[in-house]
TrEMBL record:
GO-annotated biological processes: DNA repair
Cross-referenced Gene3D superfamilies: Endonuclease/exonuclease/phosphatase
Keywords: Hydrolase, Magnesium, Manganese, Metal-binding
Keyword set includes Acyltransferase: no
Protein known as: Exodeoxyribonuclease III
Gene name per UniProt: xth
Pfam families recorded: Exo_endo_phos
Amino acid sequence: MRIASFNINGVKARLPRLLEWLEESRPAIACLQEIKSQDEGFPAEEFEKIGYRAIWHGQKGFNGVAILADGEDPAEVVKGLPGDPDDEQARFIECDVKGVRVVNLYLPNGNPQPGPKFDYKLAWMERLRTRMKELLAREVPTVVVGDFNVIPEDRDVWSVAAMASDALMQPESRAAYARILGDGWTDAIATLNPRGGVWTFWDYQAGAWQRDHGFRIDHLLLSPEAADRLVSAGVDKEYRGREKASDHAPVWVELKE
């Protein structure tokens, strides 16, 4: 079973590229971030034409997440990260599909830091950890995927110096991510690529794609029950080089059925 994650950077703007990727790679489950669409504007019918059914949590012009399943309706469990009833940002959705609990998230960027946006990021990560602990306690196969906006280690970025002041790799961001892993989650790509050097994002600016100046911020975290079924994980890098591409590449994990 292939579960994939793709920050699409605007579902309508990149719909041809998204449909192309879905038909060519055919993941059983596809999690999208930054759909940048209100709920009523999400193009669910376009995915249904190629056999995918969807749930989504939208927001006008910003954020937004969706989960697509091949030939099956995802059973929505949670929409919006629990823990703060005043948080209206569309960054979290959770469902049961194909015998797996799937969590799809778009973690706050946190820039500029220091400041309120960085404080929001760290608070959001603590709320996420609380929810993920609850999921671990269920002891069922669970996969938490998405754009975490955290570069976990120096091996996950083309230049440590270039990103030193960015919220994505501040000690506080990295420590919050490490605490999540320490609770019992497996970072699939890091586990299979211990030397690092695997990027999932290349900025549109300064020729980052052409120079391979990227970093890894899209992650696939597995509960122990899912990690026991881990076969492989990777990045569909070549899709970043296509015309009108997202600035992220899709990432995926294969689990034994």
